[in-house]
Amino acid sequence: MTDFFKGISPVKFEGANSTNPLAYHHYNKDEIVAGKRMEDHIRPAVAYWHTFAWEGGDPFGGRTFDRPWYDTGMDGARLKADVAFEFFDLLDIPFFCFHDADIAPEGATLAESNRNVREIGEIFARKMETSRTKLLWGTANLFSNRRYMSGAATNPDPEVFAYAAGQVKNVLELTHELGGENYVLWGGREGYETLLNTKIGQEQDQMARFLHMVIEHAEKIGFKGQILIEPKPQEPSKHQYDFDVATVYGFLKKYGLETKVKCNIEVGHAFLANHTFEHELALAASLGILGSVDANRNDIQSGWDTDQFPNSVPETTLAFYQILKAGGLTTGGWNFDAKVRRQSIDPADLLHGHIGGLDVLARSLKAAAAIIADGTYDKAVDARYAGWNTAEGKAILEGKVSLADLAAKVEKDNINPQPKSGQQEYLENLINRFV
């Protein structure tokens, strides 16, 4: 045991009336909601990078946190792993996620870097034998090192492509060995800064080939988890090839990957793409590529990815509604891709962030389930499209009538349709009854 969280007791559910700041007030993992345990709906995960690797810096200032594992090489990485699993146990959380660069320092060569990651992976494996916390997904950091300044899979240099492949192979295999339920490809710099030096078609062909190689290797090693792409617009590149769900689906469809790959959708990235989170979820569900989600939020006054913990029950309720209507998350979960503020320097602050986030998700889940159980909202939306369930409406969608047929019918029957209210205000008020 380390003394990093010295004096802090495991977090328990104490109910809404509790005044204990280190207790769950709404998140009761065993509570049954819509026929399933709350934990099984949410499947929450701790993000190793923001929680243990982020130093508190921002574009205008460096480190503000003082963690004992910083700048101490592999010894620090081992200590960080000890602290991480103590944190998982304190929160009583079922999953975590990691990048390779989060868990171990980079070596002088790819072989040394991969060995470092493997050593910490072995520590994870031993700890997971006695911990209930499992791996939701792993991924490789293909964006921080300067070698990736022009992308990884989309880099103009095939040697960078090859180096990235070596990283991904290692992390994919480790994810498989640790029982990870998904593998994420986060294209941190898969995009361009200027078209003056960019061949878009060439780079997208490269990205597709890289993804095919990942899928082929996953099948070769027997990895049964879901391969995920995480959409992200603009930041850090001027244009990212994985801009949003629609862009990702178009890419997958073009290269014959739409049945192999799904999306890991983040609140903050949806915001940066000028979408709502529920829009991205609804679209992914309609296209059959909803896989997993990252829980966070952005500051509406900032034009960049601030990765704050979720705290809006109304917003997250709409997200849960989309997920529940889609059948829920299967191998996916709610990964807290969120970080405490750079002034929140105490170890307890890490707990406060996750406790608050889980309480928001719990309240949102219950509200969304109540909306669906009540049925009034669904009936109102279904009524708006009722005409498409008639024989005439179905005939149109089934291709049984032509453009000329429809034109002739309108003239023959003197059809003159009148607009009907979309009832937006009524529906907003209806949703607010539950949140």
From TrEMBL:
Q: GTP-binding: present as a keyword of the record?
A: no
Any idea which GO molecular function terms this record carries?
magnesium ion binding; xylose isomerase activity
Cross-referenced InterPro entries: Xyl_isomerase-like_sf (IPR036237), Xylose_isom_bac (IPR013452), Xylose_isomerase (IPR001998)
Where in the cell is the protein located?
A: Cytoplasm
This entry's comment on the bound cofactor is:
Binds 2 magnesium ions per subunit.
Residues involved in Mg(2+) 2 binding: E266, H269, D305, D307
Give UniProt keywords alphabetically.
Carbohydrate metabolism, Cytoplasm, Isomerase, Magnesium, Metal-binding, Xylose metabolism
Binding-site positions, Mg(2+) 1: E230, E266, D294, D337
One GO CC annotation: cytoplasm
Specify whether Isomerase is a keyword of the entry: yes
Q: Where is the active site?
A: H99, D102
Q: Which GO terms describe its biological process?
A: D-xylose metabolic process
Ranges in coiled-coil conformation: none
Chemical reaction(s) catalysed: alpha-D-xylose = alpha-D-xylulofuranose
| Needed cofactors | Mg(2+)
Q: What is the similarity comment for this entry?
A: Belongs to the xylose isomerase family.
Oligomer status and interactors = Homotetramer.
Checking PANTHER family in the record gives: PTHR48408, XYLOSE ISOMERASE
User: What's this protein's name?
Assistant: Xylose isomerase
Q: Which organism is it from?
A: Devosia epidermidihirudinis
